[in-house]
Amino acid sequence: MTATSMEQLTSLCKRRGFVYQSGEIYGGVQGIYDYGPLGVELKNNIKSAWWRAMVYQRDDVEGIDGSILTHRKVLHYSGHEETFIDPLVDCRKCKKRMRADYVENDECPHCGSKDLTEPRPFNMMFKTSVGPVQDQDSFAYLRPETAQHIFTNFKNVVDSTARTIPFGIAQIGKAFRNEITPRNFIFRVRELEQMELEFFVKPGTDEEWHKQWIETRLDWWEKQGVSRDRITLYDVPKNELAHYSKSTIDLMYEFPHGVEELEGIANRTDFDLGSHTKSQVDLNIQACVQPNPDTTSRLALQDLTAKSWFVPYVIEPAAGVDRAVLAVMNEAFEIEQLENGFERTVLRLPAHLAPIKVAVIPLKKNHPEIVEFTKRLVGELKALALGRVMFENTGNIGKSYRKHDEAGTPLCITVDFETLADGTVTLRNRDTMRQVRIQSQELADYVLDYVKD
């Protein structure tokens, strides 16, 4: 079964070192989390899988890594200074602050009081000072999204790569939103990480590209272990669309706390490049028009030349890394009832996402020959550069298996006395718990094939 409560996931995350509350020893900071030893591996593996699919496996996408500090004018012309706002209300009784759209029946969700202030706008962007002098002109924003650095670098990428439409620019990076009420563990946080693609297309082809990207993204999520049956497509109504969007399809997923957005795929039209063009930076691009001068009149040639410049439309698949971690773990989590009446907690992560790819365990932790053979085997597997390979020298095979079931480790290898005699080791599969003997020389090929994306 999948996780039935957020408490089960948060407990596993803390117990096994996936996610910790930031600054926990000082009481923590609401809406800010740290990723532990296993969490950082899972997070990096998800990002690597996204980058491979978006950049390495395509011929029409480039990557960038924009700065976090963002020039004020970028977010002025993008509309964020004016529109990146949530309605804020205060409860006069309990002094809690909350988003107005989270209040039902004009009643404080914390204490039940109806003595609330009128909603007022609250801009969610973080400001910070730049330089030694602090005044009204010496500030920048921490970026609220990664997209704007893609748009402001559009011309740089075109000029340096000679890309032509259609093509995309991908980026993974931190974004910061001063959420009024962060909630539901790592689902809604103040410091987040985004995986965003801006795919530039010719106007008139945008709707077809929008459909293609929806299907492409559904396929990708399925490969990460997130079933299509748990995802519904939400066509965002016109009155709920972001200010830049012509059409947005949200991939809605059944998180432990309810159905909410996992990824948004928006048709941003020419809003962003057009808005930055209004700031006297020309982000038009020339169409690939190649008229035949022998069969085209001089006037027609002039007309084609005049019409060969345009501002591209943009299709944007944008997903949060933190939400991806939550969804992937929720799909993989299972409490399995065993035949002996016991139960085990297992994280059935796809092997390419697993934080630890292989655990190698000596049967006796103090036996010199077994430990030496185990360490040599670990070194050989590490040389494959397939991810983390762990030397698990606890001396308790059963506990080691249970620990790695919870960590999502797909394969455990045990070195024992029989290994010293014939070179075979015990290979245990996380999902089936089936154990087989295999020659240690065959392990490298087997493991590489098993954990590949």
Q: What is the overall shape?
A: globular
Sheet with the most strands: spatial strand order: 3-10-11-17-14-13-12
Total number of beta strands: 24
The share of residues in extended strands comes to 25-35%
Secondary structure class reads: alpha+beta
Helix share, percent: 25-40%
Number of DSSP helical runs: 14
Largest sheet: 7 strands, mixed
Rg on CA atoms, Å:
26 Å
Overview of the structural elements:
The chain is α+β, with helices and mostly antiparallel strands and 453 residues long. It contains 14 helices and 24 strands. The strands form 7 sheets. A 7-stranded mixed sheet has the order 3-10-11-17-14-13-12. Strands 21-20-22-23-24 form a 5-stranded mixed sheet, with helices on both faces. A hairpin with a 2-residue loop joins strand 13 (247-255) and strand 14 (258-269). Helix 2 (37-56) packs across helix 10. The longest helix is centred in the N-terminal third of the chain and has 20 residues, at 37-56. It is globular. The two termini are 24 Å apart. The model has no long low-confidence stretch (mean pLDDT 91).
In brief, what are we looking at here?
The chain is of the alpha+beta class. It is built from 14 helices and 24 strands.
